[in-house]
Structure formats: C-alpha cells, structure tokens
Amino acid sequence: MSSVQHTPSQHIASVELGRVIAILAIIGLHGQMALTYWQIDEVPWIGYVLNQTARFAVPLFFLISGYLIQPKLIVSPWQTVINYSKPLLKVWLAWSIICLVMPFNLAKVEEFGYLGERQGYWGFLMNTPLNSFLEGGLVHLWFIPALVCAVLIIALIVEMKLDKLLLPAAIVLYVYGVLAGSYATLTGLEAPFFTRNGPFFSTLMVTLGFLIRQNQWKVSSTKA
After folding, report:
1. Are 204 and 173 in contact (CB under 8 A)?
2. Where are the alpha helices (DSSP H) in 102-220?
3. CA–CA separation, 79 vs 73, rounded Å?
4. Coil, strand or helix: which one is 43?
5. pLDDT digits (tens, 9 = 90+) for 123-176
C-alpha cells in the first residue's frame, strides 16, 4: 500500500483494479469454471485449482472495505456505521425479497405450482431461522450482513478507545469460526449458525484493511 494519504471519496486505481479482478474471480467460482472440461483422467483438476485460486476474492472485498472506511470510523464511529449500513441493508432486503418470491425450479412449478415450489424452499430456510436471517433470501447474500457485523464490532471497539484490542478480538472470532465450523467434527464445538456467516471471518479481514490504512503498513512490490 502506498504511504500517500487518500481522502475517503478519492478513488484508488489499484483498489478498483483489485475489485474488478475479484468480481471476475467470483463469477468464475460460482459458474463452476472448468469443472466440466479440461479433465485429467475424468477428474477436473484444473477446475479445482481455479476454484480454489478464486477464493481470494471475498477476503479481498472485506479487506478493501476496512481500508476505505477507516478514516470515517475513526472520526465518527456510530454515525459511520449508520450511514454505511443503511444502503447495504436496503440492497440486502430488496434482493432477499426478490429471491424469496422468485421460483428457481421451473420444472417443479409446472408440476406442483408456484406455492408448491416455493414452500419447500421457505421451509428449508425456516429450519435454521438465525442462519437464514444472516444470509437473507439467498445464500449468496451472506456477505452483506457479515460486512455490517464487522463494521459494527470495529466501531464499538474504536468508540470505547480500545483500538489495541481490534486485532486480538478479530483473531479470536476467526479462530472460533474455524474450530466451530470446518473443524467442528474434530473439536466438538457448536455454533448457533454457519460460522462463515456473521462476524467470525469478516471481522478479521475488515480489521486488517482498517489497520493497514491506520498504521500505513506497506510492503515492496516484490514482497507483495
């Protein structure tokens, strides 16, 4: 990162380029890029590699968000949370409603009717209401509530003048998210919802972006 100070409204070319690359990676990831071709012994190894490589994108989005919001969070934590969250939650709510009412399986609509197709999906969401709330009307929307949770936690810590606890708190959340998520079968830990959602992973990434801006951390292009 450059040591040059940027105003919150100023566009940073490298950040915008990173966003574009990450967007393309997300499209490729959700499009299951190369999983049906370029196979070796009927195993899509190239697709698997591309799939995993693309997973830098969401952490990068979180990190960029923390980097860009840092100046405003320092000056006015609570007002920034409100101003930042409102448009995000409006988008989340609008698309949640669209996804809740829009049928995905047209074959089922033809066979069982609109309500027959939708009721199965609605019932699936109601089985885990807290997790469904943190995802919205479609699983892909989880990013927005997770980002809002992270910004809220950072604002709380900044407001309490406990900035030194930012990174430790984020690491604790992340470690718990991993142990109660992917490694739950080994640790026996339970979480109230899928730990990819909510604050467990997002807080660490947003915090890192926040601290990079605050402390002007930088590395050479070679090290990067």
Report:
1. yes
2. 106-126, 129-135, 143-159, 166-179, 184-187, 199-215
3. 8
4. strand
5. 999 999 999 999 999 998 999 999 999 999 999 999 999 999 999 999 999 999
C-alpha 69/C-alpha 221 separation (Å) is: 24
Residue 40, strand partner residues: 43
Partners of 43 in beta bridges = 40
Q: Are 133 and 95 in contact (CB under 8 A)?
A: no
Residues 52 and 27 sit within 8 Å (Cβ to Cβ) = no
The amino acid at residue 182 is S
3-class DSSP state of 36:
coil
- Give how far the C-alpha of residue 209 lies from the chain's centroid of Cα atoms, to the nearest Å: 14
How far is residue 131's CA from residue 153's CA, in Å, rounded to a whole number?
Answer: 19
Residues 47 and 38: beta-carbon distance below 8 Å:
yes
What's the whole-model pTM score?
0.87
Beta bridge partners of 179: none
Both structure tokens of 208:
């890192």
